[in-house]
Amino acid sequence: MSEYIIYTTEGFTQDPNGNDIENCQMFGIAKGKDKVEAKENLIKENPWIIEAGFAPAEFIVRQLADV
Q: Rounded to two decimals, what is the model's pTM?
């Protein structure tokens, strides 16, 4: 199985002054035989992601290099 990093551009954060900052939201690293399985595994292990309103179709999934 390969490891994948999964993130999205949905949402935003705020700086210490309360200003909105557009950036990426990192969900985590998941294993799978491919991107689809890794995304499914991440969601199974972290149901809060869907509960918070993030859309799996918007997830960016990138395979991590083996070292």
A: 0.85
